[in-house]
Inverse folding.
């Protein structure tokens, strides 16, 4: 079995910002956006490029202090950007599609983060309002 | 700017099945599961290994026939497994954690699919019940 996968970057965060961010999809991949305007929300997978370092990728436990908790948690039980594969996942509202640029709301990625995938948000698969979470996740930022 | 990212596989789908699937996290990454049992749902990112081929990764438009629609859609407007980066995303219910094995419900990955990330599902970030979708997504499988 192979133990590695290779990602290509399909776009970039051209402008960051929670209120309004811009994602530019590279020309080679732009045809993949056809029909995307029919969805109000998208799931953005991006590469947390500033954490793509050996040390960050070896992180397996963290103290989620942003959530005011000082107890050790496994990275797979948090949305920590330091993790074996520095993939960020964010549900965004799609405001506008113009050529190869998506304008979105609530993107938590930093400027220049490479985009690795865009998926339509489909509530019957993706929305679990009743999901149970530990109390610490209710403090501080959403993720 | 680099245009590629490298993924390590952190686990594998040991047993497929919508009712009950098993994900084995490799020993090197098992410490990352600490505290995961406090969440009822997880987001699983997996490598769609059977589509990790040049031709599948060059796919930019598809006909989502599983959804009884015969109109061309961009891959980023569908959950097609053929796409530039063969990453599958699935929200699952966590039934049991035993050593390095997660037992989950509703996983849509095939057996032997490598796991690339596990994230806790946090409704205040991830659940958008009111998200708008085109009519064709309501037919056939959820994704």
């Amino acid at each position: 079995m192979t133990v590695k996968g290779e990602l290509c970057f399909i776009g970039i965060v051209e402008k960051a910002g929670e209120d309004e961010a811009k994602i530019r999809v590279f020309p080679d991949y732009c045809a993949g956006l056809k029909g995307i305007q029919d969805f109000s929300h998208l799931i953005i997978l991006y590469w947390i490029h500033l954490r793509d370092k050996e040390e960050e990728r070896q992180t397996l436990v963290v103290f989620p202090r942003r959530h005011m908790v000082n107890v050790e948690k496994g990275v797979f039980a948090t949305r920590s950007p330091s993790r074996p594969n520095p993939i960020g996942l964010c549900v965004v509202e799609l405001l506008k599609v113009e050529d190869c640029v998506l304008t979105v709301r609530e993107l938590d990625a930093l400027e220049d983060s490479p985009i690795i995938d865009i998926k339509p948000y489909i509530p019957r698969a993706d929305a679990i309002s009743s999901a149970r979470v530990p109390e610490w996740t209710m403090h501080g930022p959403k993720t």
The longest strand of chain B covers residues 87-98. Strands of chain B lie at 4-8, 11-15, 21-25, 41-47, 61-62, 73-74, 87-98, 101-105, 114-120. The longest helix of chain B spans residues 54-57. DSSP finds two helices and nine strands in chain B.
